[in-house]
Write a structure and sequence with these properties.
Residues 163-265 form the Fungal lipase-type domain. This is Fungal lipase-type domain-containing protein. This protein has one domain. The protein has helices spanning 2-23, 58-63, 90-108, 114-121, 172-179, 195-201, 206-219, 237-249, 345-356; strands at residues 45-48, 85-88, 123-130, 135-141, 159-163, 183-185, 192-194, 230-235, 257-261, 267-268, 284-289, 296-297, 308-309, 313-317, 324-329, 338-339, 365-368, 385-387, 390-392, 413-417, 422-426. Residues 1-65, 70-85 and 148-152 have low confidence and may be disordered. Strands 1-2-17-15-14-11-9-8-5-4-3 form an eleven-stranded mixed β-sheet, with helices on both faces. It has nine helices and 21 strands. It has 427 residues and is an alpha/beta fold. The structure holds 2-acetamido-2-deoxy-beta-D-glucopyranose (3 copies). One 2-acetamido-2-deoxy-beta-D-glucopyranose binds at residues 94, 97, 101, 356.
Length: 427
Amino acid sequence: MKQSCSNQLLALGLSLVALCALIQLELPSWVSSSKINHSNGQAATLIVPTSEISAGDERQLQQEPSCSALSPTRLPLAVGEEEFHLGLDRKFVERMNFTLAFQYLFLDRDIHNGAAAVQEFDLAFYEAWSDSNDGALVAKQGRVDGNATDISGGYDEACHGVFQATLSPTHIVDNIQNLNPFSVHMQGTDCRIRQGFMDAYFNGYLDNFRDAMQRCVALCVPATGEPCPVVLSGLSQGGGVAIVAALDLKAYDMDPTIITFGAMRAVVGHDPAFPCTDLDTSRHFRFTNSNAAGQYDAIANQRFPADNIQVGHSILLDEINYPMLYLGLDEDRDRFPWSVDMHHRNSYRDRINGLLAMPDDCFPIPLGKWPAGHICHNDDECHGTCVSWTCTDSLLVGGHPCDTDEDCESGSCTWRIGWFHLLRLCE
Ligand SMILES: *[C@@H]1O[C@H](CO)[C@@H](O)[C@H](O)[C@H]1NC(C)=O
Ligand SMILES: *[C@@H]1O[C@H](CO)[C@@H](O)[C@H](O)[C@H]1NC(C)=O
Ligand SMILES: *[C@@H]1O[C@H](CO)[C@@H](O)[C@H](O)[C@H]1NC(C)=O
């Protein structure tokens, strides 16, 4: 029974991947920052003590376009091992916007028309490569001499490596890469990586890519005197490739930040022989999408084969991102139900546009848990608990289905025999 069920799920997963590939899985993203430390002028995130962060009721936010007008309700924010919490500053969100824009370049235009790309994005550095089904580019804003002190505001003084998402719905080679169940030890690292993402990175233009990244970094001299930020990004398949790239570029003295949108699982986990400690997952900001109907990105939540893991700071976007849902470092839960639309690059672009439309005093946008009233499917999404698909802050009364003792007023969630199944109810 269990076996056939998981077979069905697997088949469903496979067909969804194929469907996705059919529908456009593309999307890239950019990442920046060295440590999560705002003392570096280019860092993408801020360390904000919990006590300084507050978040307001989301309905109020919709009516009142000023975050300071919100009545602050203190929420416990993401609990990380490091005892600090994250907030996204506007610069980081602009960087997300910049990286994602290149996915449109990959898919809709000619990436080899460098002059057009340079003009459109006001770039100081641009090189791009593609083969039959994969593509990569290196881009940097600012001046070509990299003299950051001469740059007026608004530029992203970082070297971006961007990886193309699945080319088209029906692209056979891409889909073979995405569905390839085999994995391989990545030489020089303690990681085991899915073959398809290795193939998409270790291709004919890799030497050119590495060389361009190095030249870009050499040009880039931030006014802060810090090393040039290196940001690797990708959407969907490109997100998985960005992880491989981050591991590879360590050998070239780069310490990239990774920004992914709806990334597929590239890392094979749970094998003591390959703990993958060479990947600094705390530098990976993994955005996935959801919506007010309670649906989640259908591809980011695929687990094929079963031993693949998601890594990085798991951040879930939806229509209202204040606070933005932070699920934890290396959080790996598959979330249902799925929506293929929530994987589309346009849906990520819409979310980013929504973030950039927020008033200045909303920044840095706190990362925490959804407040009471928000739709949910799992307790880890809520400040309180998820009851009947709605976040609630109140404890459950006796007889209500529960997951843990903490859910219940009585402090006791116990097993009961129901019709044909066991369930847990509050005492
Ligand atoms: C942030 O960086 C500064 C300067 O590089 C350093 O002194 C400080 O300890 C760092 N903070 C954290 C939390 O890493
Ligand atoms: C987001 O990116 C697009 C495409 O590059 C650009 O036209 C737009 O101005 C950006 N938005 C913001 C708020 O920076
Ligand atoms: C970059 O800035 C420094 C310091 O202002 C200056 O000495 C140098 O000439 C500048 N380089 C270029 C290429 O403009």
